[in-house]
Amino acid sequence: MPVSIAQIQKWKQQKKPIAALTASDYAIAKLLDKAGVDMILVGDSLAMVALGYKNTLPVTLDDMIRHAQAVGRGVDNALLIVDMPFLSYQVSTEEAMRSAGRIFKETDARGIKLEGGYPDMVETIRKLVQVGMPVMGHVGLTPQSVHRIGYRVQGGTPDTAEEILHQSKALVEAGIFALLLENIPADLATKITELIPVPTIGIGAGQGCDGQILVTHDVLGLSDWQPPFARKYVDLQSTITEAVKQYCQDVRNH
Ligand code: KIV
To answer: What residues bind Mg(2+), as annotated (predicted)?
Structure first.
């Protein structure tokens, strides 16, 4: 049975940790799915790791849809979530509805994720959920706001921690099915996880969340740079470079 939203919500109650990773192409998506990843996110970080941009801002809705279609072809079991890219949902609720609608019509996504909290995103999320589109929230470090907040830890002071907690509760009230917590102190992430009824998925947010996500290119050692909290499980950059050097040598020595 493919993993459903209801399933991950049940896992929160059962305290069964949720393992999530990102994917941007068919080959990797297929491997992640076969290996038993519960949730696969077509994250807008693909702007950097797959398309070579400096941040997530340039990636378009068409880019996200194209990558999500490829990932979808490789996924049989994992819950497939697709990120809404910068400016595809912030200008108006109507535009958000159209952008999200395209993702659901043109890909196999079973949920979308968007960044931001109270007050900006609450009405938009409420509307999306009302018409049947499941939404995952994303608070803390929100990379689409890099030029305003940088890539620093968020919620490190009592006031900002309170603000993130307030945003999380408002997003739950608007109808999110899960919440991504990025780069916030572990004690704050644990508190949010205990206080809200939907699963929290953390990245750089400590062990107290209901699940964890990392960018697959970081886990596999394919990134040029990776955040300090991202554990590299294998160094594929070296492995691939060595294999390709060997191939070149074989061709040239023939
Ligand atoms: O785009 C992305 O990869 C993300 C990460 C925080 C998982 O949203």
So the answer is: 44, 83, 115
Choose among 154, 89, 147, 98: nearest CA to 123.
89
The span from the CA of 41 to the CA of 228, in Å, is 21
Q: What is the pLDDT of residue 120?
A: 87
Residue type, 67: H
What is the DSSP secondary structure assignment for residue 199, as one 8-state letter?
Answer: P
Question: Where are the alpha helices (H) located in the chain, listed in sequence order?
Answer: 5-14, 26-35, 46-49, 61-74, 93-106, 122-130, 146-149, 158-174, 186-195, 216-219, 236-253
Q: Exposure pattern of 122-136 as b/e (b: 16+ CB <10 Å)?
A: bebbbbbeeeebbbb
Mutate which of 28, 37, 44 for ligand 1 pocket (most atoms within 8 A of beta carbon): 44
Q: What's the per-residue H, E or C state across 79-144?
A: EEEEECCCCCCCCCHHHHHHHHHHHHHHCCCCEEECCECCCCCHHHHHHHHHCCCCEEEEEECCHH
43: nearest Cα among 83, 70, 73: 83
The pLDDT score that the predictor gives to residue 124 is 97
Evaluate: CB of 203 within 6 angstroms of ligand 1: yes
Q: Is 182 a catalytic residue?
A: yes
Q: How far apart are CA 44 and CA 86, in angstroms?
A: 9
> Taking the CB of residue 102, how many other CB atoms lie within 10 A of it?
16
Write out the H or E segment, with its range, that includes residue 22.
Answer: strand 18-22
The residues near 51 (Cβ < 8 Å, ≥ 6 apart) are 58, 59, 63
**Burial status of residue 57 (CB atoms within 10 A of its CB: 0-12, 13-18, 19 or more):** middle
The list of the chain residues with pLDDT below 50 reads: none
- Contact at 8 Å (CB) between 20 and 201? yes
